[in-house]
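look at this stuff:

>
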Amino acid sequence: MLNFLFVGIGAAFGGMMRYGISVWMKNKWKTNFPFATFIINLSGSFLLGLLVSSELATLWQLLLGTGFMGGYTTFSTFKVECTELYLQKKAKILTAYISLSYVLGISFAALGFLVGSL
């Protein structure tokens, strides 16, 4: 039961952090490229890689990894934004968004693993 509590608390704070960053970035930069989700997912990839490679206790992994990072990063928003770009016929932005998200996301996760294992 304690595991569920830790995941829930982490997810709540991760979701609030994601929302705050999204609102701030969307107000600061008016652009067709979905920078808020892009930055959130890249930073989340790095941080999750860092966490997974660390030797934190299981409850900390649940709180920060499964909970916080699960609430902070947003695969579903990424997919909706891709669909919106497709429907708006913004093929160049869509291609850049998908390509950069996957290539850099994996790269940032690998960098997180590397830093975490030092």
